Amino acid sequence: MYEHRSHRPLSQRQFLARLLRHGGIAAAMVAASLAIGMAGYVRFEHLGWLDAFLNSAMLLGGMGPVDLPRTPAGKARKLASMLCRKAPYSGSGR
Question: Cβ of 28: how many Cβ atoms within 10 Å?
Fold first, then answer.
């Protein structure tokens, strides 16, 4: 995917194309995470879409939720989401 250090660097046009492609992939991943989080808040916590957006955006930003889970399904969703976020770092030896 990337050039070896013995190869010539990419041209500016090729580098910008790669940068835009990677930025687009990252933006799509963030948008998908936000959409999944919003759907979970609407489905399990019965929040409106605007409140669901606020809570999901705050979680993705690392600030934590604005509204705490109130229903058992919402609490289970919160636990599952927490475990999914922390699982990649567990057992890494750091």
Answer: 10
Asked if residue 47 lies in contact with residue 55, where contact means CB atoms within 8 angstroms, the answer is yes
Domain ranges in the chain are 12-86
SS3 8: coil
Task: Tell me how many degrees the CA angle 26-32-36 measures, rounded to the nearest 5.
Answer: 150
pLDDT in tens, 40-92: 889 988 999 999 999 889 888 878 778 888 888 888 877 777 777 666 566 65
Span 9-32, pLDDT tens digits? 889 999 999 999 999 999 999 999
The reported pTM is 0.72
Kindly state the DSSP code that residue 89 receives in the 8-state scheme: G
**Nearby residues of 78 by Cβ (< 8 Å), 6 or more positions away:** 65, 69
| Residue that has been written with the tokens 């933006």 in this structure | 27
